[in-house]
Amino acid sequence: MKYGYFDDQKREYVITRPDTPLPWINYLGCEAYFGIISNTAGGYSFFRDARLRRITRYRYNNAPYDVGGRYIYLRDDSSGEFWSPSWQPTQNKLEEYSCRHGMGYTTISSKYKGIEASTRYFVPLDENVEIWQLNVTNHRPQAAELSVFSIIEFCLWDAQDDSTNFQRNFSIGEVEIEDGVIYHKTEYRERRDHFAFFACSEKIAGYDTQREAFLGPYRGWDNPAAVERGHCSNSVAHGWAPVGSHHVKLSLEPGETRQINFVLGYQENPRDQKFDPPDSQIINKKAAKAVIAKYRVAANVNAAFEKLRLYWNDLLGLCQVDTPDVHTNRMVNIWNAYQCMATFNISRSASFYESGIGRGLGFRDSNQDLLGFVHMVPGRARERILDLAATQLASGGAYHQYQPLTKRGNDDVGSGFNDDPHWLIIGVGAYLKETGDWGILDELVPYDNAPGSETPLYEHLQRSFRYTLERLGPHGLPLIGRADWNDCLNLNCFSDSPGQSFQTTTNKDGKVAESVFIAGLFVLAGSELAEIARHRGLAAEAATYLAEVAKMDATIHKHGWDGEWFLRAYDDFSRKIGSKENVEGKIYIETQGFCTLAGIGLDDGLAAKALESTRKLLATEHGIVLQQPAYSKYYLEYGEISSYPPGYKENAGIFCHNNPWVVIGETRVGNGDAAHDYYTRINPSAREEISDIHRCEPYVYAQMIAGRDAPTFGEAKNSWLTGTAAWNYYAITQWILGIRTSYEGLLIAPVIPKSWRSFKARRKFRGVTYQIEVQRAGDGNKVCLEVNGAPIQGNLVPLPPAGTKIVVVKATLR
Ligand code: BGC
Ligand code: NOJ
Fold first, then answer.
1. 209 FRET partner, CA 20 to 30 A, in 4, 31, 749, 764?
2. Dist. CA 208–CA 242, nearest whole Å
3. 0.90 cut: is pTM over it?
4. Average pLDDT, integer, range 409-416
5. For strand 587-588 and strand 627-628, is the pairing parallel, antiparallel, or unpaired?
6. What is the mean pLDDT of the chain?
7. Which residue of 354, 368, 487, 640 sits with most ligand 1 atoms within 8 Å of its CB, as the best mutation to test the pocket?
8. Cβ contact 37:9 at 8 Å
9. Which atom in ligand 1 lies closest to the alpha carbon of residue 359?
10. E strand or H helix at 469, and its extent?
């Protein structure tokens, strides 16, 4: 069952009924001002940091869900009837409804009793505002006398404090109202130098800024007193809950359309120019007024939207493919790339599932996300890498997370996740392969942001590598620390008290439990580092890395192989995890995927065997589950993984992030059919038809799909912010389609299904557009290349001479 359809021409998903199984959201904003918006206009906005600079309020986990948003009410002033054109919060039975989620904008349209309303929400590039572009059309045979009410609820900036510290917060709310513009200035009198404003393009009939004055006591958003009565009360918030509401009167002739633009913005003032006049407590509104004046003009609003459209055209245009599979095309060309940009901007901080207060930017997360966005925003990827590296510790370890506003490591979570440092090597490697910008390695970057501690970025990578060598366990495998990629495999935690954080509680000294996953990661990262060293002219150093890699590979063969698959780990008693010896958790996906993608066991059949076991024991029609059998009870010595009921999250859920590792593993053994089959099982577009089971958005990946042990097998959760986006993008474009960046240039190495006769792609790489056509002439994966009409040896397209704009590549598979 479906709740809408893809409009690929317009790059939109069109939701055709408002009561989706869950709020289906989109993101607004590209650089600093961001928001989430649901298909019924729920959601909130923030500046850079969803915790520290929350602009509007949202109520997570409320009933009904998705409460708090960018709401508009329409009221028929002749009958007194009112409704929400976005369905929420009044939930009137609309005659028509659609929500078009597009690239950086959302348009919600509806019709009720002959009145059509369509609101396009977007954030212009380079400006800290959002615009609600509302068009109201009267389709009635007679004139309509209408009232329009806008409403948002301001957050008192720190979203965590805002939702807990009521003894203070009920007394500090402050606003100013000038020329119909509502300014939210809580705490501006003291240490803040920023405020928010909410403006309207039309002359207003009234306003409200105190929530209870607008709603009326004991009323909800579905039935505000001001709307029922037909006018606001010009309330001025002193403490309690500041809101912004404009009331606009609208007389529409039959067939007439009127546009109203609302502008919600964020503004910072220089410290010494906060007030106007300087000795007053009145906000200096000069800069804000200029922005408001600009967007009061409809033509400027349209121009800003056009600019945004071109921005996305350019970004997505960098890699476009035309394959026999519609779901592949749609995800690669539109939604998967778009989702990669969301994870770049928001990491894991703000979605319908991420409250914006819990997790800043994850070190391993952001480094992996690079794989998906580096080709679109290389300049910003560079900055991200340097920011991440600056939170690395002198030991080579890393803060697990940092706050985007301060760019400082998060002390609450700290470090000790022993996989973290290697992701920096993977991230930097991806950046170098894409850009060829070797200069980044000489950038001076501090450790833990401490001035004076700077070394070249290259040394950060060296320390990352050494970090593991200095932390090997009894079998010569890497010690796991708090956890590796699987945050929930906590082998030193031994937590027996409710409420303790599995992520930060550590009751064992951590000298025994080892991770085969980190060993696989070490092999991959070490090989990358060796290549990087070689390119820097450090051949001897490269050789030492390769020697360590070979040693680790041998250790994995010796102590990390269980007979038919790769082991997962050794626990604090040096007992195996992910072994046939275990009663539960006999086989895990992570090591099957990661070891094979890292090339371990390719020559001696171990990789093929591990993939075969994966197929036999872990693969389901909804994707590959994380382990089997699921843990049926809590294991003190394993930690959070066994805290989840069977089939959910890391306890045998389909944790989509690691499915593409198996996909890449399959391409490494040359099995294009299996690779694309696994790719398709979790492809959200390919799951659109079962939206009633999948339940999350059909246009973006979710972190998890409930596994076969769960009563809700096939149900997705935690959509949008997941490493799944980058890894799937990387797996399909670079490994299945095989258009792969390398240190030397672009490789063409497709491993596609046997049934595909051909595909085409256009990929911009280091300033040159590659027009690629791949044809099948046999069942295999052997590539014969022609570049600009001339046959060449091997599958590396040589870097063209400077100034070249287009390179034509023809590949024949035999
Ligand atoms: C989740 C993990 C997550 C971790 C850290 C756990 O509860 O299951 O997926 O990485 O928390 O936030
Ligand atoms: C989500 C986290 O963001 C990611 O870093 C981790 O690898 C997975 N959960 C698996 O636990």
1. 31
2. 9
3. yes
4. 90
5. antiparallel
6. 97
7. 487
8. no
9. 12
10. helix 457-469
